[in-house]
Amino acid sequence: MSERLCVPVDNCWQYCQALDRITGEARSANESSICQWPDVYTAVLQERDDSTSSLIQQLGEKAAAASEIKYEDPRGAASTFEGLTAIMAQRMVGWSVRASIAQSGDRITDVESSHFVTQVHESRMRLRNHVASVRPEAVTVAQARHDKKTLKEHGLLFDETTISTIDRIVDNIANGNHTLLVGDKGIAKTKMAEFATSLFSAGKPPIIISGHGSMMGDELMGGIGLKSGNTVFGEGILIKCLREGRPLILDEVNLPDQQIIMRLQDIMLKRPGQKITLQENEGEEITVKPGFCILATANEASGRYANRERLDPAFRDRFDVVTVQYPDIDTEHLTEYPSVNIRLALTHTQTEGGSPNPYVSPSDAVLLARLAHATQRLYALPAKEVAGRLLKSTVDVIDRDEPLLTDCITPRKMNRILERVSIGSLPGATVMTEVDRVLDSLDQQGTRNKDYAKTILDMLQTKKD
């Protein structure tokens, strides 16, 4: 690429720094010409041919289409789906570029970050203007089809909270900071961690180690063993990540013996370029490569989550702690629709080609989503904040700080119910027959989970009728 001339403007050095990084060519200023940012930067990204940029190039082509969508089809569903897909591609480009820059040992500039945010914002505004004149049913169909696509590709529904959480995780990884995702079961904590780390793994699968009570230190750090009659040191998963500059996911970090986990304390204070001393291998020194960090997930230690240990405050303090809650947790049951739960449920009312699924009706999907949302609130929140308003027709207001339910229909469980029905391979199975089966599974000895959930379901069906 030939030398580019530009007008000296605020942050101009950041534009040139970004271009210099990916082209290796210097630029100079000349007051007689006009800066070509961001067109030149976008073009350069799509021309790159290193291992990471193949994905960026493919996504860049899809993202570029966002500004070319005409939104002309009369029904609106097809172009709305295209718009949603292109906006998701733009987000992926932003995340992938940030990961690529971090692994090169550099930092993304403010103007680059702003560039990607602006692209998404402008495309969202164009789509919003379009859907204002489209039939609501067409928008619902397009959204469900798009959500079905992202669930298949990434295992995630990209609502605003999920996008915000991934933004935060990606920023932490890019800056070498560690993240702890804390929350109840079935909220996709591990899936979000896997998605974010995959951006930094150049097509390789995420490196994940699941916590369990018998975890040995060798799994993390490594240990001495015999190979072909010789004593050798076998590296653990953590050492592999340190050497390769890749994130490590510690799933259920408060399940293992915390003495093993505490071995990480000193390592987590090291920054890229600094060295750690590997005591397990005769004091070998290992340089921390850019891209290394730890993402941990945990359910808080409580009576509901057996065998979890409380994390040592000093260890916990090494993380950016992100609390992940059930979707729509602040949405009032029976008075407002739990939009994210319903979005997830409606993905099963569509085939991949956008046709209606004959096995799952939208009304049954919405009913299940509202039931699931109610049980999530009764499981996650103190009873006195929720139970009186949910069950006042049959239960007095409960003045206690503990949740009413000891189990719930999580987003993950709801998704599995609908998956089973939507494929049409279970004779006689409907959403409601599966709901009855799941309500039976909610009950444990000494609890009334099923009774409360059945009361809510009856209220919902009465309101529906």
Describe the protein in words.
This protein is an alpha/beta fold. It has 3 domains: 5-154, no CATH class; 176-324, P-loop containing nucleotide triphosphate hydrolases (Rossmann fold); 339-464, no CATH class. Helices cover 48% and strands 11% of the residues. The protein has 18 helices and 11 strands. The chain has helices at 12-23, 39-47, 53-64, 77-103, 110-131, 136-154, 160-174, 189-198, 217-220, 237-244, 258-261, 313-316, 339-346, 362-380, 383-391, 411-422, 431-442, 449-464; strands at residues 5-6, 28-29, 178-183, 207-210, 222-227, 230-235, 247-251, 275-278, 284-287, 293-298, 319-324. The strands form 4 sheets. A 5-stranded parallel beta sheet has the order 4-7-10-3-11, with helices on both faces. A two-stranded parallel ribbon has the order 1-2. Helix 1 links the parallel strand 1 (5-6) and strand 2. The longest helix has 27 residues, at 77-103. The termini are far apart. Residues 1-5 have low confidence and may be disordered.
Describe the structure concisely for a colleague.
The chain has 465 residues and is an alpha/beta fold. The protein has helices at residues 12-23, 39-47, 53-64, 77-103, 110-131, 136-154, 160-174, 189-198, 217-220, 237-244, 258-261, 313-316, 339-346, 362-380, 383-391, 411-422, 431-442, 449-464; strands at residues 5-6, 28-29, 178-183, 207-210, 222-227, 230-235, 247-251, 275-278, 284-287, 293-298, 319-324.
